Amino acid sequence: MGMTPQDRVEEHKAAVLLGLPTTELRRFSRLSGIGHVEENGHGQEMVFTYEELRRLCLLAAQSSK
């Protein structure tokens, strides 16, 4: 996707930044289609841009109302 390391946020870090369990982050990602899977040395992981995290944050806030 052409992202530099500074532009990408791995799944665990994204969950911490949003204050969500990883399972909840994956659920929001799957339901919204936000984020993408990348291969790393240990298998696959979800990766997000900071803009995608902003959108997920808005979705999570709306669902808590």
Report on the structure:
The chain is an alpha+beta fold. It is 51% helix and 23% strand. The chain has 3 helices and 3 strands.
Summarize this structure as a short list of keywords or feature phrases.
single chain; 65 residues; globular
Strand share of the residues?
15-25%
Number of strands: 3
Q: Could you give the order of strands across the largest sheet?
A: 1-3-2
Biggest sheet statistics: 3 strands, antiparallel
The helical percent reads 40-55%
Helix and strand content put the structural class at alpha+beta
- Average pLDDT over all residues: 87
Supply the number of helical segments: 3
What is the 3D form? globular
Contiguous uncertain segments of 5+ residues: none
How do you describe this structure in short?
With 65 residues, the chain is α+β, with helices and mostly antiparallel strands. The protein contains three helices and three strands, in the order βααββα.
What's the arrangement of secondary structure elements?
Blueprint: E1 8-10, H1 11-18, H2 22-32, E2 36-40, E3 43-49, H3 50-63
Antiparallel strand pairs: 1-3, 2-3
Helix pairs in contact: 1-2
